[in-house]
Structure formats: structure tokens, C-alpha cells
Amino acid sequence: MPNSIAPLLCCFFLTKFEPKFEPVNLQVGDETQKLNAAGAREELCFSPLPIQTKVYRRRWLMLVIFLLVSMSSAFQWIQFAIINNLIMKYYNVDSTTVDWTSLVYMVTYIPLIFPGAWIMDKVGLRITLLMGAFGTALGAWIKVLGVAPDLFYVALIGQTITAMSQVFILGVPPNVAAVWFGAEQVSSACSIGVFGNQLGVALGFFLPPILVKDHENIDDIGADLKLMFYIVAGVCTALFIVVVIGFQAKPPLPPNAARIAPQSSQPVTYYQSVKTIVTNKNYILLLITYGINAGVFYAMSTLLNQTVLRHFPGEEENAGRIGLTIVVCGMFGSVVCGIILDKTHKFRETTLVVYGLAVAGMVAYTFTFELQYIVITFVTAGAVGFFMTGYLPVGFEFAAELTYPEPEVTSSGLLNASAQVFGIVFTIIGGWLLSNYGDLVCNGSLSAALFFGAALSLFIRSDLRRQRANQMEAFRANEAI
Prior knowledge:
This protein has helices spanning 2-16, 28-38, 40-44, 59-78, 84-91, 95-145, 152-165, 173-180, 186-211, 218-246, 257-264, 270-278, 281-302, 304-311, 316-344, 347-368, 374-403, 408-437, 439-457, 465-480. By secondary structure, it is mainly α.
């Protein structure tokens, strides 16, 4: 599946969205005034001379390699939770224990985000992705050793190692996009990078219920689990080898003026960068609203199997298909939103519209379970996925705009940390509400949280610093000509 989708997307974007360098009419005095208001560091980013840039075709190969590694990590996040009842039966554990195979992805990310981002800032994209791919493969092989009714702790150790490795993967999309892609493609590239994570989650919903069946004999369940774990470990190992052979840290020349601008400014340490970002009021609002959106998605996904089986007993495979529908629609939503951003640069407006529609979709999803028609649940789940997941790359790119010239890996890493915090809180509270009060109260509470996030988004100002940097360099290049 990934081998068929990714090249088609690459060809589509190669033909449709090749960078165009057109004259930009700006008043230098007005632009300088804006830069002074944005702060001294941003003003220092502009070079007094035209900058040589080049966009390389190999950028698509780098993006596809990252996409596949991200897919292999995201698949393992949900592979236990979507067959919650079978894991409970095989390992003789309760549903809350199985939920922790998903929660461990969120719990480990929070303390590791700062050292992980620091490492990426120091060693660059290639070494970072190598570390992520290696850890993902190692955790997958350890899970192979955990296939026995009394070895759940071994499987959880493997899941924990895989979860820890995602710190070198989850925040990378905006960095790959900024390092390799031109100004007219950076949002689309980021969306495709996020697409890889969503593709992994989609396969994580879809394949485990097909590979692992409910048997009377638990040894047969164990044989199915071992087959699934072997397949995943083999794929992850192959991808690690691909990263070793084919992934490059950066192109010889920068793809756009904004990329080289931070190198022209005064050196800034990672912790100074974090301090600058967390004192940015617009970014803090985005940090909270992004965390709420992603946290609701994490909770909804983790509890999906239990929710579906409450209304449709014995429909484990359909629970997986509903999850697949959510994520596939979300993948299309991500790409569509990325295209809209590249064409319009309306970050705030896109955020508000997509967030508002995500709330409407979540409310519809909450109440359609009561109708007892699983087809309707598929439709409303798809709507939730399109808008809720489609918001994720919008948040990444909006953060990069608001915090420029700070590194994209720092702003995106903090967004992901916020998502994990809210994901843990919403999953634990949602699981408790689901067990004690039912899915209507659980999903209704998640809808209310999402509505609060949408309302808070109204207060984010559209301070597009990276766009201004590209416009100013384009103006200087035209003046030089």
C-alpha cells in the first residue's frame, strides 16, 4: 500500500506544485517597520545580497523514506489497542492494561522531547532518523520475544522502546519540508510527511484485526500475534537499511531564502530558542489548541474498539475498518489543507474553519452510535478524521510561521508534547467515563473539549514571519536583477 501511494503523490506534486519565482512588489520601508516590530533576531535574518538557492528532485526520495519510517512507528502505536479484547484474552490482562500499550507512546514522549529535539538540533536529520528507525526495529523484534501468555511485560518493553524512538520521528515533518523543499511546496511537503504517520495508524487499525483472529485455543491467538510481530519487525529492519543507504541530511544548496536566513543570524542555543518560543503568546495559544485537537484524536482512537463493541458485539474487524476510515479520510484532509496553505497562505483562517468542522464532526460521531446503524458511524467517523487529522499539518506549519526563525523541530516538538499530555489526560478520563457512564458521556466530553479548543483558536493572531522572510529575499533578488 505505501509503495503504491507515495510515488503517485510525489509525481502529482512534482507536476502541479513546482516552485515559481515571480517578482514580489514590496515597500522596503513598510517591511522593515514590520520586522522591527517582530524583533531584532528576525531582522537579522535577511542577507544584504541575493542568495543562491536550488530545489533538488531527490527531495521526494528523502520525503518518501521519512514517510515510510514514520508509518512503521505509527502502526505499532495502535496495534494492541485495536484488538483490545483479544490481547486481554491471550495475556489475561484487563482493558486498562492494554490501553497502556497506546498510552506509553504519549508518556515516554513528554520527558524525551527536549533531549530529543536537542539531539536533532546537534546531529541533523540523517542521524536523527537513523536513531528513530533503529529503535523502532529493535522494539519490534523484542515484541516477537513476548509472544507467550505470561510474557506481556516483554511485549510492553518492546512497545516502550518503539515509543521512545518516536521522539526522533514525530516532530520531523516540518524539518524535512523546510530543509529540502522550496517556499511554494513546504506546506504540501509537511502535509505528506504527516501523511506517513497517518498511513501507519490507518494500517494499524486495519491489519491487526485481519491478522489476529479470535480463537477458542489461545495458542492459535499466539500464533497469529507472532506472525504479525514478525512481519512488522521485518519491515522495520528493511526500512532501517534504506535509511542507512539512501537518506541524506540536507541538500548542497538551500531550497529557499528563509532556509539560509537563520544561518546568517547570530548563533542561538537550543534552550534560548525554547525560551523565545514559549514567550510567544500566539504560539502558546496554538500549543494548547493543537494539544486539545490531537489529544481528542488519541483518546478516540485508543477507545475505539471498546466503543464499537458496546454497540456492535463481535464486530472487531469493523472496529478496525472504522479506524481505517478515520485515518484515510484524515490523510486526504492533510493533503488538501497543505495545498490550501501553499496556495493561499491563510493560516489562521484555515485553522478556524478546519477546527470548527472537526467539532461538528465529533458531535455527529457521538450521537450516531445511538442510531445502531454501523454504516452511519462509518460516515461520521470519516468526517471526524478528515477535519480533525487534517488540522495536524496546519498546526505544524502555523507554528513554523509564528516562531520563525527558530528551528521547526523545536516548535513542532513542543506541539507534539502538548498532544501527548492532552492525549494521556483525555484517554484516562475517557476510559473511566466509558466504563462507568457509557460512550455517550465519554464522546460528549471529548466534543466539549474540542469546542473549547476551537473557541481558543479565535485569539491567535496571524503573524506570518517566515512568509515575510521569503518575500523580503524575493524583493532583494529582484532589486539586484
